Amino acid sequence: MAAKPTEGEGPGALGTQYRLGSDPHIYVTKHMHRFANPARFLRIAGVATPLTLWPGLAITALGLAWGLFYAPPDYLQGDSARIMDVHVPAAILAELGYAGLAVAAAVGLVWKHPLAEVAARALAPVGAVFAAVCLITGSLWGQPTWGTWWVWDARLTSMLVLFFLYLGVIALSNAFDEPGRGAKSAAILAIVGAINLPIIKYSVDWWNTLHQGASITLTGSTIAPALLWPLGISALGFSLLFAATVLMRMRAEIAQTRVRARARRMAEAFA
Amino acid sequence: MFRLLLARDLALARGRAGAAALPVVFFLLVAVTFPFALGPDARVLAKVGAGVVWVAALLAALLPIPTLFEADRADGTLDQYAARAIPAEIVAAARWMAHWIAFAVPLLVAAPLAALLFGLSAPAIARLELALLLGTPGLASLAVVAAALTTGAREGGMLAGLLVFPLGVPLLIFGAGAAGGSGAGAFKLLGAATLILVAMGPFAAGAGIRAARG
């Protein structure tokens, strides 16, 4: 039953057949199609969720405890540099999350895989939260270090634009009454955003060098190994938590679709 | 077919000349509002003038977005186009060109007026006009994409701002830079940013139109 969940979404969403045999991309995308089967996905995700969630929590706790309490303070910035153990992983995951969102959106648009739409919808809020965490922790770090909550630095500005792009994708996917429409529109926006991101990044860099003077850039000094270890560990922990959250959101979304479909069948049966 | 669609869109725009003038009036209003907030110091105004005019243009570009495709979707015109196998990309491209003519040409006429309010010099006004001429096609393309993606949405108008702002950042940066006298490089980059948006716009908007038809 789960292999063909035709109910619940509009045409082209969960109702689409894959027609594996007639697909010219079969050799390229064989594995993608194999994992796009919702039943197989749920089986794998059911195993993968606890495998990412619990080690993710443990490793994050280890990395943060190490970085926040046991690692020596930075010789220049003192204790405030410890927030980097949260800030840097959040920044990396916010950017990688957008790349994942764009790939899921493209797969959803081109091959009309229902799972890709589910993945895109599940990814976007998680990525937005990581971008927000990155901005907030950066601001908290900037106050004692730079003496100001916000600097129009190129990197800060790019992350802010990325955050707004996430918000646009989320808002668009929730803006429609007909169910399939929001996913499609949001997917188009995510792809347009992905094409534009390098241009936005470049334009912000260009603008920042144009207005040079006020901004204080991060020093390019190498990080001491004693501080690098907790950073790497918490980055790994954050990544596992990111994966676990996305997997849980995807499973919840699929479950919701099934509940809706079931309610509709019941209603039809008793009508 | 492109020319037929363009003629139709332009005729419709002519019929609603009053509505088409609103974004330009709004553009001037935004530009006029800034001196009240910043104070009448001529040096300050001359310094921020080019940037303010660009911000006003970006804000004015948001206004017509909810009207660009909504009527055609509601009365079934988009379905008629699809039934006649007219590619959605052609529809989007024609709409982009009509929108640029209806929106940007009056804006280009009004821009020197706004620039005079900020006391910009003649060469600065010429730079601003050239920058707007280079940048508005990209701005119009973004508006058409946002309109196609949000047509039929709840709160489509407010949503459009959220879509256009991040994607419009390069236009704003290069446009204000070019108008503010950052040299020929800024004009080239502005042209490049516009070209990418114009090249991509019809395809993204076309996909949006198809999604809107369901």
Mean pLDDT value of chain A = 78
Q: Rg of chain A from C-alpha positions? A: 22 Å
Per DSSP E runs of 2 or more residues, the count of β-strands of chain A stands at 0
N-to-C SSE series of chain A? HHHHHHH
The biggest beta sheet of chain A, please?
none
Question: Roughly how many Å apart are the termini of chain A?
Answer: 23 Å
What shape does the CA trace of chain A take? globular
Overall structural class of chain B, as computed from helix and strand content, comes to mainly alpha
From the N-terminal CA to the C-terminal CA of chain B, the straight-line distance is 23 Å
Order of helices and strands of chain B: HHHHHHHHHH
**Which two chains have the most extensive interface, and how many residues on each?**
A-B, 34 and 30 residues
Q: What is the beta-strand fraction of chain B?
A: under 5%
Number of strands of chain B: 0
Summarize the amount of helix of chain B as a percent range: over 70%
- What fraction strand of chain A? under 5%
What characteristic shape of chain B results from the CA principal axes?
elongated
- The overall average pLDDT of chain B, rounded, is 87
